[in-house]
UniProtKB/TrEMBL annotation:
UniProt keyword DNA damage, yes or no: no
KW rRNA-binding (keyword) present: no
Superkingdom to which the source organism belongs: Bacteria
Domain NAD-dependent epimerase/dehydratase: 11-264
Annotated organism of origin: [Clostridium] polysaccharolyticum
Keyword vocabulary terms for this entry: NAD
Classification via Pfam families: Epimerase
Protein name per UniProt: Nucleoside-diphosphate-sugar epimerase
Length: 362
């Protein structure tokens, strides 16, 4: 593994107004300064843009506390090749973290176009820019880290999910685009010797998360007195991973790139790796809902006498969904000495407190 010191480096974070991206920028400013971060986000309205604006304001506040560092925000789309080429030409990033993507399994069933644009064309533009960063004997990009997803495991029966498993049966277009990202990165690593690492995230949650995620959507509905639907009659299990654990994993991986070396034929072996980042502790959906309701009452988002049973409906499985997600994180532990460990209660407590401040106190 090639060690990378992030201090004084220029880092490009795509999707920097997103849930994981914004938290990563904050973590890098707080722990790796002096550092130079360029963020890009198209600020689309797939979900409430006010949350994205709030995240950007948090970054601005943090950046002001670190005058030795710089944070530059570009409002743009990674599927626009000219925008990406301009960023690489101007800023010459050493490490690229591609988190920009059209997220969500269910949305991909009705709106496939945005997935092709962002997840395939956008990622292709990033790969091409990384490739040309070595032109004219420039040092170029030392490490490309990109978001994959636990969705690539599809309807795999074997658990826990291992990165050694075959993942050739995606059950949604979203999953297919994420698997495609891994294949594209592998071919670019092989052809152009670009060190790249893909990270398969498992159900990320936390404060200022995505409103399309179950815990957030449930909270919105319960507050309005609406009924929440629990799929597969509550028999789904999810490997819920708190956002700070994801960010810590990304930060560590950024600092250790797959090594460039040649094979017996004298040609480069692809400096390529894929890891799971998950909690390795799948929680039953009904247990998850119970903890969420307890924490919402504790944070005074909901009244103490709230009648949950009257607002719960058990329904069949949704198209594109899977019954269980469960990460084998042994390789991440072995290579980077890290294992996510935030408990569901602790994570949902922080979410509930944030939700109260953001929605009820403002």
């Amino acid at each position: 593994m090639q060690k990378i010191d992030l201090h004084n480096k220029t880092i490009l974070v795509t999707g920097s107004a997103g849930f994981i991206g914004s938290n990563l920028v904050l973590e890098l400013l707080n722990t790796q300064s002096p550092i130079h971060i360029v963020g890009i986000d198209n600020m689309n309205d797939y979900y409430d843009v006010n949350i994205k604006k709030w995240r950007l304001s948090e970054i601005d506040k943090c950046a002001a506390k670190h005058p030795e560092s710089t944070y530059t925000f570009v409002k743009g789309d990674i599927s626009d090749k000219n925008v990406i080429d301009e960023i690489f030409l101007t800023h010459k990033p050493s490490v690229v973290v591609n988190l920009a993507a059209q997220a969500g399994v269910r949305y991909s069933i009705t709106n496939p176009d945005s997935y092709i644009q962002s997840n395939l064309i956008g990622f292709y533009n990033i790969l091409e820019a990384c490739r040309h960063s070595y032109d004219n004997n420039e040092t170029g990009v030392e490490h490309l880290v990109y978001a994959s997803s636990s969705s690539v495991y599809g309807s795999n029966k074997k658990i826990p999910y291992s990165t050694d498993d075959k993942v050739d049966n995606p059950v949604s277009l979203y999953a297919a685009t994420k698997k495609s990202n891994e294949l594209m990165a592998h071919s670019y690593s092989k052809l152009y010797n670009i060190p790249s690492t893909g990270l398969r995230f498992f159900t990320v949650y936390g404060p200022a998360g995505r409103p399309d995620m179950a815990y957030f959507g449930f909270t919105n509905k319960l507050l309005k007195g609406e009924t929440i639907q629990i799929f597969n009659y509550g028999n789904c299990k999810r490997d819920f991973t708190y956002v700070d654990d994801i960010v810590e994993g990304v930060k560590r991986v950024m600092q250790g790139a797959p090594e460039r070396k040649n094979g017996e034929d004298g040609l480069p072996l692809p400096p390529y790796a894929v890891y799971n980042i998950g909690n390795s502790n799948p929680e039953n959906l009904l247990d998850f809902v119970t903890i969420l309701q307890e924490e919402l009452i504790r944070a005074q988002v909901l009244p103490s006498d709230y009648d949950f049973e009257a607002h719960k409906e058990l329904v069949p499985m949704q198209p594109g969904d899977v019954p269980i997600t469960f990460a084998d994180t042994t390789p991440l532990e072995t290579d980077y000495g890290f294992k996510p460990d935030t408990s569901l209660r602790e994570g949902l407590r922080k979410f509930s407190e944030w939700y109260k401040n953001f929605y009820l106190n403002n």
